[in-house]
Backbone:
């Protein structure tokens, strides 16, 4: 059984391969070969009582019989709610030894049951989010070389641009994020990686105006994409269900979502307040009828739902919640490449299996 | 991070310690300190199409802030449905290398999030099932030295007798299972371990008649415990929701169950038939009103529900579904003892944590 770290994983996977693997596996899922288990969060209070800290044991899983693997993704997080610049923020604390986070993917064979690999989720997490948005862009954005505007300059923004440039040749990219230093540093860092100059701009409108594709890649829990930013032919790509204003969603011609699961299943000790975005009733979009009945990305890829129908359609993909199924797909890419490259530490499989009938 | 195997775990834990740890933690859970996440099974077809084989990725988790740990228990099983002696049986296939099964417990710190240990679930699985039934027996069985009848001679039966003899001094034990050789071998093997002679008998009635405690520890998916076997003062202990006939349940004076979760949450690829016992509507007991409204073991232990009230009450505990929470409790016992004993293989924690914000 292989143990891999994020550096090793970064060195052996690439965005186009992840997108191709996701495209094939999502088609299989739409055709009934492949299944996803809804995310669950188990929450208790932790730390000093007045700190408001939460321990969250989060998991999701999925199996792709086409690929012969299943994956369980587990996050074991310490979460605090400090007040930063007058706003209550949700902050994951790297409380493990060495100021580290704990997020793991366990990959299993669906043919023998055996564990194939364990690795941290940091790199694959970004790949699978961005690959899903990239796939949606492939099917929904206009075919010509698009102009791209991106809101956000965090780690999700970087992988979103990698996915964008994997599915389309891009004419130009403009980037806004509130902090000028951040957006400049992001533009300088990402431009050489994707082979397109990213131009930092000083407002959301400046990033979006004239764009053919608007990438929303923020950690905002309040909608910021406004209805009057919509134009014919625009494709909006969002990484969560809180970025797009409900009025904008109602005006869009075509919405595609990632999963019908909505919010995670919460198991909570008494006194615990779940994060607003994770509440079953949380997220402005849930009241929008167009969102509730929107088709799924997997069905779009499988051809059960039409792709873009005209140059004038305004389209929107919302990556509303992740799927454990994605970790099975990207996990299989990682595993195959690692075996080929001889990467990682190979531990005896019998350490993680047993003679005892469980 | 510790990697332990079943032999190492067997050597460092014992039933009385597990029962004591469960008693304390269940009380905490009843008082709002501790939470359990409902079991989920992700199912796809596997193997040749005509084989009817299923791959099952099953998980459950729970957190005890009192103990400072959370645990995720994962089973990665190949399941087949062969016809054995004219009956369709559910059989887990040891398909991992070396003809082994894959069942794992991951133990995390709820104070730092870090992974503390990974170990197979085989030994702790038996301990936690039996410890729950043992605790129920402590609160519900008559106080005097009981006569015990047990139905079943499998691995659950052995740990049930260990738990029984941990909570009560036992006068005598009679055992029935359908295969004469099996029940004789079981009696010979278990008697020295528990310090009580187990007498194999040739019928269920012979095992149960005159008993003060009837232990049902079978893999039967059909009810076999009959209503006319009930007597005043009897305590029935069952390890699943299908062993006791609904008519018997309706006649019992007091029922306590393990969890209100009922059946697991199923995520299934198209064409997969879940095992009958795991279906939301499966199991005869679900139609019995007394079962649906029965109090919980944790509340019995916490004193929110009265224990046995008279010598004449006929009581029944049904361990209707397992809890991930149990693996946190027993996992903590295992971890503390292993650290103390220097048992297992200590892998670098940084292999299983990361700098990357997940």
Residues:
């Amino acid at each position: 059984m292989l143990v891999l770290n994020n550096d090793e994983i970064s060195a052996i996977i690439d965005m186009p391969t992840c997108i191709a693997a996701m495209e094939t596996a999502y088609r299989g899922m739409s055709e009934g070969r492949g299944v996803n288990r809804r995310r669950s969060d188990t929450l208790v209070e932790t730390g000093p009582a007045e700190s408001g800290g939460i321990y969250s044991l989060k998991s999701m899983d999925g199996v792709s019989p086409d690929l012969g693997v299943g994956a369980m993704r587990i996050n074991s997080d310490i979460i605090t709610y400090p007040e930063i610049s007058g706003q209550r923020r949700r902050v994951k604390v790297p409380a493990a030894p060495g100021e580290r986070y704990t997020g793991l993917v366990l990959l299993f064979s669906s043919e023998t049951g055996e564990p194939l690999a364990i690795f941290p989720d940091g790199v694959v997490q970004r790949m699978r989010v961005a690959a899903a948005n990239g796939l949606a862009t492939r099917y929904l954005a206009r075919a010509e070389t698009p102009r791209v505007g991106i809101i956000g300059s965090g780690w999700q923004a970087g992988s979103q641009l990698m996915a964008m440039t994997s599915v389309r040749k891009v004419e130009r990219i403009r980037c806004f994020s509130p902090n000028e230093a951040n957006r400049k540093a992001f533009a300088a860092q990402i431009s050489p990686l994707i082979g397109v100059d990213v131009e930092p701009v000083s407002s959301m409108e400046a990033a979006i105006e004239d764009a053919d594709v608007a990438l929303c890649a923020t950690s905002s829990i309040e909608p910021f994409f406004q209805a009057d930013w919509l134009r014919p032919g625009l494709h909006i790509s969002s990484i969560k269900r809180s970025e797009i204003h409900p009025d904008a969603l109602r005006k869009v011609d075509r919405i595609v979502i990632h999963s019908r699961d909505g919010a995670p299943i919460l198991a909570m000790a008494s006194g615990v307040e779940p994060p607003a975005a994770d509440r079953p009733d949380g997220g402005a979009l849930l009241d929008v009828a167009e969102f509730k009945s929107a088709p799924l990305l997997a069905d779009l890829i499988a051809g059960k739902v039409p792709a873009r129908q005209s140059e004038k359609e305004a389209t929107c993909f919302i990556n509303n919640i992740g799927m454990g199924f994605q970790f099975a797909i990207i996990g299989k890419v990682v595993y195959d490449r690692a075996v080929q490259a001889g990467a990682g530490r190979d531990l005896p499989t019998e350490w993680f299996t047993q003679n005892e009938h469980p």
User: Anything to note?
Assistant: Chain B has two domains: 2-124+324-352, 125-265+274-318. Chain B touches chain A through 78 residues (CB under 8 Å). The two ends of chain B are 20 Å apart (CA to CA).
